[in-house]
Specification:
The chain has about 220 residues and is mainly β. It has two helices and eleven strands; from the N terminus they run βαββαββββββββ. The strands form two sheets. It has an eight-stranded antiparallel β-barrel. It has a two-stranded antiparallel ribbon with strand order 9-10. A hairpin with a 5-residue loop joins strand 4 and strand 5.
Length: about 220
């Protein structure tokens, strides 16, 4: 990558929920959500041949895990999804001058988290009705660390393969409590039992040189 060059990199991959940030006996994001899809578009300005700074827009989506939500599935109609949009500032360090070189990266910014949980109980209109329509639409700070490899494939174009840990802290558990009007028994519906939504991304992408910021 050349000094003063500006690059654009579309990337796609898989998103893996993880248990980081939760105690061993607590429910984690990996308990409630399955592996999903992730995509991003990065713009990078190379300050020198080894260091680049820029920004990134991203998207991820994860389906719910039936093993966890199965109890509700058997008691009515259930749907859930986990989605997030991100805007991050990024820094990249490219090590060495060879065609294949290691890459280290950091990122910090915010996620717009849009989770949805809809449960329509079989017993709607009765004392056993636990129906709920839960949606989140919140912005939360986030930061990431990344390692990868960059391979020069042509004039001003590079293929990247990377592994990234995304930390989205400060999300809290949410539980809905209902009381049966006949037995006065309390029931608890887990809306967000997992708290943090930390995850790991495996992505591939291509960096394209789009223009020289500094003309020689």
């Amino acid at each position: 990558m050349g000094f003063g060059q500006i690059y654009v990199a579309p990337k796609i991959g898989i998103n893996i929920p993880c248990h980081i940030g939760r105690e061993t006996d607590e429910i984690g994001f990996n308990d409630v959500a399955s592996n999903g899809f992730t995509a991003s578009l990065e713009g990078l300005w190379m300050q020198n041949p080894q260091v680049g700074v820029g920004g990134e827009l991203g998207y991820m989506t994860n389906p719910y895990k039936e093993q966890f939500w199965g109890n509700l599935i058997t008691r009515g109609s259930f749907e859930a999804s986990y989605k997030a949009f991100s805007a991050m500032g990024v820094g990249r360090l490219f090590i060495g001058e060879r065609r294949l070189k290691p890459m280290l990266g950091v990122a910090a910014g915010a996620y717009l988290i849009k989770n949805n949980l809809n449960f329509e109980s079989k017993w709607q209109g009765t004392g056993k009705d636990e129906s709920v329509n839960y949606k989140t639409n919140i912005i939360n700070p986030a930061y990431s660390g990344e390692i990868g490899l960059l391979y020069h494939v042509g004039n001003k174009s590079f293929v990247s393969i990377s592994v990234r840990l995304n930390i989205i802290p400060r999300l809290k558990e949410e539980i809905k409590t209902t009381t049966d009007p006949y037995t006065f028994e309390e029931r608890h519906i887990a809306l967000n039992p997992h708290g943090n939504e930390n995850n790991i991304e495996f992505k591939v992408g291509i960096y394209f040189g789009v223009r020289d910021r500094i003309k020689k």
